Amino acid sequence: MKNKVLYTINKSELDKLIGILQRDGYRVVGPTVRDGAITYEEIESVRQLPIGWTDSHAPGRYRLNRRNDDQLFGFVVGPHSLKKFFFPPKQRLFGIKRDGESGYVFEARQPDPPRYAFLGVRACDLAAVGVQDRVFKQAMAEPYYAKARDDALFIAVNCTEPGGTCFCGSMGTGPRCTEGYDLALTELRTTFTVEVGTNKGRQLVEALEHETTDANTSHLVDLLMDNASEHMGRTLDTENLPEILLKNLSHEHWDEIAKRCMSCSNCTFACPTCFCSNVEDSTDLSGNHAERWRTWGSCFTLEFSYHTGGYSRSSPAARYRQWLTHKLANWHEQFETSGCVGCGRCITWCPVGIDITKEATTIANDVKRSRANQEAKRLEEVGS
Amino acid sequence: MISALDQRPSIVCGEANPMAPAWTRIVACQQESSNTASYTLQFLDPEQKKNYRFQPGQFNMVYLFGVGEAAISISSDPDKCDSLVHTIRHVGSVTFAMNRLGIGQCVGLRGPFGSSWPLDECRGRDILLVAGGIGIAPLRPAIYQLLKNRDDYGRLILLYGIRSPQDMIFKEEVEEWMDRRDFQVLITVDYPSEAWTGPVGVVTKLLRRVRVDSSRTSVFVCGPRVMNRAAAHSFLSHYVPEDEIFISLERNMRCGVGQCGHCQYGPKFVCKDGPVFSYESVRDLFGKDEV
Amino acid sequence: MEPGPYDIGLVEGSISTPEEAERIVQVRKECRFLVTIGACATSGGIQALKNWADVEEYKRIVYASPQYIDTLDTASPVAAFVLVDFELRGCPVNKYQLVEVITALIAGRRPQIATSPVCLECKRAGNVCVMVAEGTPCLGPITHAGCGALCPTYGRGCYSCFGPSESAAAEALCAHCEKTGTSKPTIVRMLRSFNGYLEPFKQVGDKYERQAVNN
What we know:
Distance between the termini of chain A: 54 Å
Number of strands of chain B: 14
Distance between the termini of chain B: 23 Å
Order of helices and strands of chain A: EHEEEEHEEEHHEHEEHEHHHHEEEEHHH
Shape of chain A: globular
Strand content of chain B: 25-35%
Number of domains of chain A: 2
Structural class of chain B: alpha/beta
CATH superfamily of the largest domain in chain B: Nucleotide-binding domain of ferredoxin-NADP reductase (FNR) module
Strand content of chain A: 15-25%
Number of helices of chain A: 13
Oligomer: heterotrimer
Radius of gyration of chain B: 18 Å
Number of domains of chain B: 2
Helix content of chain B: 10-25%
Helix content of chain A: 25-40%
Structural class of chain A: alpha+beta
CATH architecture of the largest domain in chain B: 3-Layer(aba) Sandwich
Largest sheet of chain B: 6 strands, antiparallel
CATH class of the largest domain in chain B: Alpha Beta
């Protein structure tokens, strides 16, 4: 990765890039300051980027702060991921009215998704898109997702200053973008270095004023990346974690977490990989028109596990356990990847600040300790 | 896993959208018991009618205009895919509403979804079927196939548990099966009527009345959770191997394609990895609460 | 009331007088589906705040001639008196939810009224969490959805006009609010508004009140 050719562009070229994307029919989505946070919205110019802003992250706490420079991407991740663009929070799947041979006809098809160009997405967000692809772009692809996803363009930005709840380093997804991007930028003082990921990306660079990055600058980027890796706000030891979690579904710590967890579902909606949904069939008062809607759903709600005769997961402890074990353990068997990309959103945006890395580590450490004790005891018995 | 998925019949749906139903018409309706009826559905679209295929144990999502959708197993013969029978107990919104529909009316359908009973893999073996109540519905397509290819299998036994004699569904057929010499059918009831002379009690008690050769028996189980659990444990104690016990699990299937997440059972999506599982594949969670 | 029977009866308001307590029994008899709508009918409402007070004292303070006032000691939800088929929360109720309940009953299905917390609606709307980003106390995590996260959408905390959600973790939320600087009396006031007499708001509110008094 480190020997990939880098190009350098001046920061002033970024507005030109946005212009080219707009001309190519893309809706450009980038980070912008809104309601006290940096969120992904449609933007039209560089001026809308969070120039000179940064964010501070702690469990259950997020604040915007002023930087002492004019960096465009001097923050980590906001409350929103790219999920909402491919898998909208509320989506009408179809409408039906009474008519025709069956008595029912489908109304006009749902409109196609816009073509999005995402500017300023992070390595963790790219990784999350890859994780969701495995859910929605399988044999029975979700049509809206597949179309939006195939049409999308990604201009990523490498993180040089990880946040307080970041742990992409532990999950192997960042801080440097390694796949899934068309272009990956690294922000320096007056320039960006650019890595090209696709032909589409190459065409964009060629349309901009660019030069090949010199060796010193290239080395500087590597140093920045190494430094970022060493300054993650959180870490998670993933070794044997799936096995440890799945073998300890009765661990007392699940109940301890449930005393703090409100089952409010914020973590699942902030999570860029959580994919669960509810399907609702509704009618109008005339009874002649029906619709089916898909909305984001959460394993933290009681109704999520409703079936004839009761609820599969009635206790909040079982629901937290389902979420965490799904994310960090069962996902591997389902999709051959972890469900967690280490973006830290579930930690920051948990209203009471429950920390997935801390809870998983508490259980893992306790299990490892008791396993070690048992082993020591066994050896002692063998010895005596 | 992937290759098994590829061999499954392709899914029929409407509007090129896996979440949109195709339309079928109710062509026959048979009351099976006080709260259960069988509906025969035919696709309106001739192409869909011609191309639809399913395997025993699979289910469809049945959609009622404006009411919603429910996962219903297919209870008819897979060799007669132009008419699909769904046997429905009226317990929820959708199934109650179904009760109000008559012949000629249309319902939506997506499917078939899920895994099937491993009939091919079990050739040459004794097959022991355990059904509880409506659980006989997803087993009936397998029974049709087993009887049609009777010589390919060893002994064939059905243990069928019902609440009371009047709750028996597929009554005429079950009686025909009982008359066959190559099919041992035992029925037990929880609440006997005065006329009932057969066994009384849970279905696992019937095990005492049959000979199980654990080295050559495959077991197919479908019933309420408590029964599934008891049956699986009984067979394990009869030394039937874990990978020869197959159970059809019920969970809240909503999308059918492993995308909505509702039916997750540990690492499994019951809608696409199941509903039919080998005991071995769900051993760690089987019978556990709150998972 | 015109004599019934009615397919659907909608009831607003709490039961707070002896006359209402009698009338609701008759209403129940006349309706196939009895649906209570609004915070008053489903929790006792604001007037249920008198359940914590001395009603005789209130009567003396408020009315010039208290002897004409005939009231029960408590204001209660309708469901405390008769069987209710569906409770539609909110102060006021959401009109789309009301239409959904009526439509569903006509169509013969379960009304699709989520009992989960406001947070789900808030996040689906793309709001920035006021609790996390601003430190504003918000009852959203323990409040029944249905308003479309109206208050957080305008940058203020939820004050639970829809009452407790399913498995509302009032204890956990209040512990966190206290830890982050909300005083005990404020927590009591947060819980005791439109739906303060519903559990678990009542129990947790009472607990914090006792603690506030003891301090």
